[in-house]
UniProtKB/TrEMBL annotation, chain A:
Residues 118-215 form the Seven-in-absentia protein TRAF-like domain. Belongs to the SINA (Seven in absentia) family. Keywords: Metal-binding, Zinc, Zinc-finger. It comes from Camelina sativa (False flax). This is E3 ubiquitin-protein ligase SINAT2. It comes from the Eukaryota.
From TrEMBL, chain B:
This is RING-type E3 ubiquitin transferase. Its EC number is 2.3.2.27. Residues 105-165 form the SIAH-type domain. Pathway: Protein modification; protein ubiquitination. Belongs to the SINA (Seven in absentia) family. Keywords: Metal-binding, Transferase, Ubl conjugation pathway, Zinc, Zinc-finger. Gene3D superfamilies: Apoptosis, Tumor Necrosis Factor Receptor Associated Protein 2, Chain A, Zinc/RING finger domain, C3HC4 (zinc finger). Transmembrane segments: none annotated. It catalyses: S-ubiquitinyl-[E2 ubiquitin-conjugating enzyme]-L-cysteine + [acceptor protein]-L-lysine = [E2 ubiquitin-conjugating enzyme]-L-cysteine + N(6)-ubiquitinyl-[acceptor protein]-L-lysine. PROSITE patterns: ZF_RING_2, ZF_SIAH. Residues 52-88 form the RING-type domain.
Length: 223, 314
């Protein structure tokens, strides 16, 4: 109807802010991110959010060894890691691996191994790497979360190495894969041991100075 | 009683006889000492002959002599400017092979016989045994300058407390905070030692800052005041943490027969990189305020079983 009154037009900006209001949780004012797949408000106003519907920044391929440029969302990355990088995926929240090398002094600097873990409906990257920390040969193992930091902080993980009557356990919070593998390694945010200690662990029934490192661990959700 | 360890082999010349395996000695000489008659068996005489007249240490091949037959150990020979210290004649390079061979048949008790060692050894293998003898006294476990004091554990604990001013604790759990306002000053190794008394035993908890290669680290480890065999009856754990992260070490305490430096350099303990230690310290990460907790308990670690691992892939 045409009249002298003009209804103010709802601009795009106003629509966005209204949507924001809907998304604000009643308890805390954190915005719901696209990582939350299901939300029910008391009045059933909002609907299940789908990952594809939100515009999220793609992730970089976490397989840093080959300086891969691949980027994409998590489902794409999982296929990419399996098909293009031959990375193994393990089901379950606990794991146990043995890293073996017959001559660890020749272990190439920055040799790293990546395994994927699938649990709690999410995926995690388990890294094991030989490197030098200011000329001292070391090994580091850590877990990163395939997703954003806010959700990563809901989890904790532990890693345990041992042998020969000794045991070292690390408990930490998985870093998001938004942080590069190198960033996490250089901040030493993981289970880190010297090669000497690794060989001490390995010397169960082993006089050959071979590396036989058992690394076990688990992931869990913090309440 | 204080024993300062020296290289001399004590010859018990006074009233004790030296008991030998070889009981075929028919010869003996008697020596009068101020009225008392002392029997000295041939072994004593030979053993006396093997004592260097200059340094009184036992002589080992090559044993030297001068033209007049006076003997000298090889160490002292380098210091006497080619003059026999007994008769002042020119020395030369004569070797006293006969004496070296006679020493082969000599058998003597371990120098720690008075501490309980019952064993007797041929002259040439005695020193090696004595370096490993289980009855030998312990060396002071203080980490700093190599303290030469030796003795039994009771004596050493009092020595640590009184002479090295080491903290003593009773109990098998601990909770320490290591504070250093300028953690960049870790170029020179600094260390701290605390002694724990539990299970009727004494344990040394070491905490040290040092350079691992070129990276600054902190290390904590436990040593047992006793032999390795007894140390294996115990297990200890150490833990550091903060900000959702935690590092736990579990292992068997090393015997104080292994020097502090040897254990440190074997990395057999809890090692934390300085960055991580500062992270655990919280705050601005400029000050070290590292809380280390731990405990000791009676348990044997079975070195063959290692870590219990669930039966999973790989």
């Amino acid at each position: 109807m045409i009249s002298g009154e003009v209804e103010p037009r709802i601009t795009d900006l106003q629509i966005q802010s209204r949507v924001h209001e809907l998304l604000d949780l009643p308890v805390c004012t954190n915005q719901m991110s696209s990582a939350i797949y299901h939300y029910q408000c008391p009045n059933e106003h909002t609907q299940e959010l789908n990952n594809e519907n939100t515009k999220k920044k793609p992730y970089n391929c976490p397989h840093s060894g080959s300086k891969c440029d691949g980027t994409g969302d998590i489902p794409w990355l999982l296929l990419h890691l399996r098909n293009d990088h031959n990375v193994e995926m393990h089901d379950g929240r606990s794991f146990s691996h043995r890293y073996v090398h017959h001559n660890p002094k020749h272990l190439h600097h920055a040799t790293r191994m990546l395994t994927l873990l699938d649990c709690f409906g999410r995926q995690f990257c388990l890294y094991f790497e030989a490197f030098h920390l200011r000329k001292t040969p070391m090994y580091i193992a850590f877990v990163q979360f395939m997703g954003d930091e806010e959700e990563a902080m809901c989890f904790s993980y532990s890693l345990e190495v041992g042998g020969n009557g000794r045991k070292l356990t690390w408990q930490g919070v998985p870093r998001s894969i938004r942080d590069s593998h190198k960033t996490v390694r250089d901040s030493q945010d993981g289970l880190i041991i010297t090669r000497k200690l690794a060989l001490l662990f390995s010397s169960d029934n082993n006089s050959n100075k071979e590396l036989k490192l058992k690394v076990s661990g688990r992931v869990w959700r913090e309440q | 009683m204080v024993l300062i360890e020296t290289d001399t082999i004590e010859c018990a010349i006074d009233n004790d006889e030296i008991h030998l395996n070889n009981s075929n000695n028919k010869f003996s000489t008697t020596k009068s000492q101020g009225g008392a008659t002392v029997v000295i068996s041939p072994a004593t005489s030979v053993h006396e002959l093997l004592e260097c007249p200059v340094c009184t240490n036992s002589m080992y091949p090559p044993i030297h002599q001068c033209h007049n037959g006076h003997t000298l150990c090889s160490t002292c020979k380098t210091r006497v400017n080619n003059r026999c210290p007994t008769c002042r004649q020119e020395l030369g390079d004569i070797r006293c092979l006969a004496l070296e061979k006679v020493a082969e048949s000599l058998e003597l008790p371990c120098k720690f016989y008075n501490l309980g060692c019952p064993e007797i050894f041929p002259y040439y293998s005695k020193l090696k045994h004595e370096s490993l003898c289980n009855f030998r006294p312990f060396s002071c476990p203080y980490a700093g300058s190599d303290c030469p004091v030796v003795g039994d554990n009771t004596f050493l604990v009092a020595h640590l407390r009184d002479d090295h001013k080491v903290d003593m604790h009773t109990g098998c759990t601990f909770n320490h905070r290591y504070v250093k306002s300028n953690p960049r000053e870790v170029e020179n190794a600094t260390w701290m030692l605390t002694v724990f008394h539990c299970f009727g035993q004494y344990f040394c908890l070491h905490f040290e800052a040092f350079q691992l290669g070129m990276a600054p680290v902190y290390m904590a480890f436990l040593r047992f005041m006793g032999d390795e065999e007894d140390a294996r009856n115990y297990t200890y754990s150490l833990e550091v943490g903060g900000s959702g992260r935690k590092l736990t070490w579990e292992g068997t305490p090393r015997s104080i027969r292994d020097s502090h430096r040897k254990v440190r350099d074997s990395h057999d303990g809890l090692i934390i990189q300085r960055n991580m230690a500062l992270f655990f310290s919280g705050g601005e990460r400029k000050e070290l305020k590292l809380r280390v907790t731990g405990r000791i308990w009676k348990e044997q670690q079975n070195p063959d079983s290692g870590v219990c691992i669930p039966n999973l892939s790989v």
